[in-house]
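Fill in residues.
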């Protein structure tokens, strides 16, 4: 009986500790589209047409066509950042998380091809991260406007 009671107490303490550090998912929304763009939701095989007002989640991929661009707000009204996805680009929203209790956030955008212009707000807390991954590097910022471009390498 004592072992069962001790096991229940340990399980309760662990559950409370995990809940204290639980990260919640965030979203991005499409504010404008010039030209045409497509979105592939996480876990789905193909792309479909993107539209203004569409909400994108962690794991979704956005792709722009030639002479096209998309403006995204990360966290509603650009509370975290605005991301301008330029023509012929493909970007995965790899990580969009927030610790609601601690206030820290984690953003990781994976740019496979093309160019993005990001206006990131100052991140709060030492645990917060805003990063852009490319095939050759990872860039992390604390709050600034910056441009990242990935070009095809011809062999």
């Amino acid at each position: 009986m004592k072992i069962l009671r001790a096991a229940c107490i340990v399980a309760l303490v662990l559950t409370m500790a995990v809940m204290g550090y639980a990260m919640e998912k965030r979203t991005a929304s499409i504010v404008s589209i010039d030209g045409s763009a497509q979105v592939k939701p996480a876990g789905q095989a193909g792309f479909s047409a993107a539209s203004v007002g569409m909400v994108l989640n962690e794991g979704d991929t956005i792709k722009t066509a030639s002479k096209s661009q998309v403006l995204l707000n990360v966290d509603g009204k650009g509370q975290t950042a605005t991301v301008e996805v330029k023509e012929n680009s493909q970007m995965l929203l790899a990580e969009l998380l927030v610790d609601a209790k601690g206030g820290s956030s984690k953003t990781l955008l994976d740019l496979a091809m093309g160019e993005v212009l990001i206006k990131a707000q100052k991140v709060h807390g030492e645990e917060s991260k805003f990063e852009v991954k490319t095939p050759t590097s990872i860039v992390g910022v604390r709050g600034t406007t910056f441009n990242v471009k990935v070009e095809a390498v011809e062999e």
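The chain has one domain: 23-150.
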